[in-house]
Backbone:
């Protein structure tokens, strides 16, 4: 029909007799009954009937189209809704196991009969019985996402059953009423009054047993549900992370997945561990405080799910703060932040090694007679199902100080504990021993002073099993967990059991014991504590939730504070050091190290001539005194004018010197020359920054002090020196002149020293007295008189005879000067030495022209034997210098370079040394700026990851 109408309509549209205006006019006329084109009634025009059919067909087709659209949209929306429902249903956890735990209809009918009986005995208070059955479900703070729907469904089902039971009880009560029993005022805390009939007593006992059995089942159900919920949340987080990466077109990176949120936060706290600013301690962390032996370490081990801390029998175990970062991971491992070793917590051997390492680090931190230390030990623990948080375990607060402790131990612990708790964002986990009297607590007053409102305090009562066993009034525990006994406030109160005083118990066995205890405990059965207040599992969930809430509330504020600090420091740097780079202490040290090593490499490029000249000067400076005082002067004094005797004495003394002293003396001179050359090389850099100088000087001095010449080098030198001293023949004119120059220089230097000694003995001369207003002492005047008398004597012998001494003494007495014989001989020694040196210098000048005569006599001449002696010494020293130069080039320079590298390596790892050598506002400002940037970047990275997880 519609096709026929459409065909007629198209046919009519193709007719040329009707225009578009005519069509609109006809359509308008149909609705109004009047013509638009002609002001006449519609009946006056002849309109074909099929035109009306065309308009009707159009209207029908529009209605059909709307129906199809509505029908198609409804079908498509229903299919989409069904698909979404199926996806949501598949995402929920499998809860079929509830059917095995919850009773069926027949069992509920029997339970209804029991409730009717209890209704007659209990009275109007019966409706409160349902509270314990749903208490554990309502108190669970972790019900969210998929578990919320299932929990709500379960509550509705229980409420319906309860209403049915009450209705049935009302009907039965109306038909057959019995004598009501006394009412129970306080839930399940009071028992029904004893009945006269035995049957009523048995029914009451049976009722109580059934209620207790249901309570145990509910508690077990809650624990199982929490474990399942933790597993599903973990899987959900991993799937969200992988899904996010897949949406971005990237494959999940294993390396990035390992960088968890809590690890990023822990690295920020590590950066701030030694920070001096007040902003450092404002980031949230969980501070575990309590009295000694209250169970702090045991609670932390339960949270970490491993026994990671050493234990002692009656002595302090925690001697330093221990920062533990708990995080999730596929394997249960522990690791120190400054070590690469991972301890497998599933292996007892690794656990033992971990406890030993913790104990060793604590003992190393309390050296110097201290009992506790503020040096923080940082470690991380990862494992499946471990809550994510950062805890700091502190030494226990003590009330009595024993004799083997340091005198300030008690106050040091209190100050350390207060310092950590004063952080306004720190969560205080206050541990109280439940097995001891509340009046013996030392930490509650301290916690109350730091957090009087209790907005960031969580109270934990440990050893509840011992408390329930020992206390005569269990109501005292209820008052503690309600916050009515201790003078402090808290966010939450928890009761836990962390062991049975057995060192070999595993964490799993302790957890099972804890759950069994609370299922059968009077505290729970009698309604004194709620199910959410017991077990370390609930404690971990509560603390983790509080920790992350505190982190989210405060971390952005801390990031803004560090951003402002960075801006201020950068402004100070630009104004104070505008043309210098921001180099921190490590970077400055590395630059100083590079300069030192570059200069050290130049040591091998020193020319041989420069080395030999320096070595000869060093050798002569070391040997000059020995040559004059031990060889030349004694030989000259002994031989007097006998040349052969002089030569013989010189030969003997030179050989003894070469065999006993010269080699060792040469090594010392070589080390001194090497030190001087090395120091000059290090100080030649003109463009070096002055801030490097303390580092360079300390490194060079330490390397040179460590450097020792090879021992076998002395034997080689000894042989060469003995052979060189045996040669008495001067081969060339140049050698002769060189020996004469050496002799003249040595004599002049010695003569100058002798004259200065005489001047100090006799006092200033006439010129000094008149021009420089210098005066002589009484002793100097006496020496001057003796000196003048000895010079008039004119003796040429090294030792005065007795007659000469007596003559000088008598002459001095006549002039009023009293001097004994020894005083006269002592004054004669420098006078004679001066005269001898003057004569020797005159002979040396004469011998400079005697080389031709020496060659004509083939070295047998005796006129210039002193020049030959100095040539022999010079030849030995020249040979020694050449040997030392070769040893330096072949061995010693390389060994010195290695020792310098070792010193620099040691200094690079010694933070205190670098801080001492590299100091000043420039270094301190660069250091602080670097640390602020690092903290700010890590905080921003953490905030970004935190927002993504939200």
Residues:
């Amino acid at each position: 029909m519609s096709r026929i109408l459409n065909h007629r309509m198209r046919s009519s549209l193709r007719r040329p007799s009707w225009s578009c205006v005519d069509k609109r006019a006809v359509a308008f006329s149909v609705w109004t009954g009047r013509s638009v084109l002609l002001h006449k009634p519609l009946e006056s025009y002849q309109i074909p009937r099929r035109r009306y059919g065309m308009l009707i067909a159009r209207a029908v087709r529009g209605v059909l189209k709307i129906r199809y659209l509505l029908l198609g949209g409804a079908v498509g929306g229903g299919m989409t809704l069904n698909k979404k429902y199926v996806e949501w249903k598949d995402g929920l956890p499998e809860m079929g196991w509830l059917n095995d735990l919850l009773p069926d209809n027949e069992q509920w009918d029997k339970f209804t009969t029991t409730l009717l009986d209890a209704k007659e005995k209990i009275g109007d208070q019966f409706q409160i019985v349902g509270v314990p059955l749903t208490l554990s479900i309502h108190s669970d703070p972790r019900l969210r996402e998929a578990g919320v729907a299932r929990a709500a469904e379960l509550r509705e089902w229980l409420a319906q059953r309860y209403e049915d039971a009450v209705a049935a009880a009302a009907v039965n009560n109306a038909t057959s009423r019995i004598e009501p029993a006394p009412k129970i005022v306080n839930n399940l805390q009071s028992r029904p009054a004893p009945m006269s009939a035995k049957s009523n007593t048995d029914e009451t006992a049976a009722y109580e047993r059934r209620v207790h059995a249901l309570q145990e089942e509910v508690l077990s159900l809650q624990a199982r549900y929490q474990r399942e919920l933790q597993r599903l949340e973990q899987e959900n987080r991993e799937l969200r992370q992988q899904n996010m990466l897949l949406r971005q077109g990237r494959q999940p990176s294993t390396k990035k997945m390992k960088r968890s949120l809590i690890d990023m936060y822990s690295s920020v706290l590590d950066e701030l561990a030694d920070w001096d600013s007040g902003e450092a301690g404002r980031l949230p962390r969980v501070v575990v405080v309590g009295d000694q032996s209250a169970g702090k370490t045991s609670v932390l081990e339960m949270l970490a799910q491993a026994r990671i801390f050493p234990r002692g029998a009656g002595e302090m175990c925690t001697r330093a703060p221990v920062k533990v970062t708990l995080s999730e991971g596929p394997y249960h491992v522990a690791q120190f932040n400054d070590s690469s070793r991972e301890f497998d917590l599933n292996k007892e051997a690794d656990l033992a090694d971990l406890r030993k390492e913790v104990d060793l680090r604590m003992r190393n931190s309390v050296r110097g007679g201290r009992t506790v230390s503020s040096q923080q030990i940082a470690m991380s623990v990862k494992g499946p199902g471990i809550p994510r948080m950062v805890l700091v375990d502190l030494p226990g607060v003590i009330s009595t100080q024993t004799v083997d402790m340091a005198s300030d131990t008690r106050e040091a612990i209190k100050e350390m504990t207060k310092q950590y708790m004063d952080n306004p964002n720190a969560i205080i986990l206050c541990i109280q021993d439940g097995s001891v009297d509340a009046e013996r607590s030392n930490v509650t007053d301290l916690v109350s002073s730091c957090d009087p409102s209790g907005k960031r305090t969580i109270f934990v009562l440990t050893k509840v099993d011992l408390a329930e066993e020992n206390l005569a009034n269990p109501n005292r525990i209820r008052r503690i967990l309600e916050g009515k006994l201790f003078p402090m406030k808290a966010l939450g109160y928890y009761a836990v059991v962390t062991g049975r005083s057995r060192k070999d118990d595993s964490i799993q066995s302790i957890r099972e014991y804890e759950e069994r205890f609370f299922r059968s405990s009077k505290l729970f059965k009698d309604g004194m504590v709620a199910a959410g207040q017991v077990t370390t599992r609930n404690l971990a969930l509560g603390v983790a939730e509080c920790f992350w809430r505190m982190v989210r509330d405060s971390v952005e504020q801390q990031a803004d504070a560090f951003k402002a600090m960075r801006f201020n420091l950068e402004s100070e740097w630009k104004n104070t050091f505008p043309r210098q780079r921001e180099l921190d202490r490590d970077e400055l040290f590395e630059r100083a190290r590079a300069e030192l090593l570059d200069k050290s490499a130049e040591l091998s490029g020193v020319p041989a001539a420069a080395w030999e000249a320096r070595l000869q000067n060093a050798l002569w400076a070391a040997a000059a005194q020995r040559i004059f005082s031990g060889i030349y002067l004694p030989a000259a004094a002994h031989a007097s004018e006998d040349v052969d005797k002089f030569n013989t004495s010189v030969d003997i003394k030179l050989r003894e010197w070469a065999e006993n002293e010269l080699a060792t003396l040469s090594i010392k001179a070589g080390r001194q020359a090497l030190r001087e050359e090395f120091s000059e090389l290090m100080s030649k850099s003109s463009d070096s920054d002055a801030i490097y100088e303390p580092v360079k000087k300390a490194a060079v001095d330490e390397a040179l002090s460590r450097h020792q010449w090879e021992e076998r080098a002395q034997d080689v030198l000894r042989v060469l020196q003995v052979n060189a001293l045996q040669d008495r023949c001067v081969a060339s004119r140049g050698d002769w002149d060189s020996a004469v120059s050496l002799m003249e220089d040595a004599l002049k230097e010695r003569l100058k020293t002798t004259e200065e000694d005489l001047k100090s003995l006799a006092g200033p001369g006439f010129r000094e007295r008149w021009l420089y207003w210098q005066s002589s002492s009484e002793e100097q005047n006496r020496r001057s008189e003796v000196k003048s008398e000895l010079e008039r004597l004119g003796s040429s012998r090294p030792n005065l005879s007795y007659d000469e001494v007596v003559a000088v003494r008598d002459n001095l007495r006549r002039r009023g000067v009293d001097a004994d014989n020894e005083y006269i001989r002592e004054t004669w020694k420098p006078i004679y030495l001066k005269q001898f040196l003057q004569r020797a210098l005159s002979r040396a000048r004469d011998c400079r022209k005697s080389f031709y005569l020496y060659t004509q006599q083939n070295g047998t001449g005796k006129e210039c034997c002193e020049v030959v002696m100095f040539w022999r010494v010079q030849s030995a020293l020249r040979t020694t210098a050449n040997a030392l130069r070769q040893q330096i080039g072949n061995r010693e320079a390389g060994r010195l370079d290695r020792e310098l590298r070792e010193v620099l390596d040691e200094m690079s790892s010694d933070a205190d040394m670098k801080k001492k050598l590299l100091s000043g506002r420039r270094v301190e400002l660069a250091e602080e700026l670097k640390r602020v940037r690092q903290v700010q970047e890590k905080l921003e990275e953490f905030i970004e990851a935190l927002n993504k997880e939200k």
Summary: The beta strands are 286-290, 322-328, 333-336, 343-344, 377-383, 389-393, 427-433, 457-462, 492-495. The chain is about 65% helix and 5% strand. Residues 327 and 388 are 4 Å apart (CA to CA).
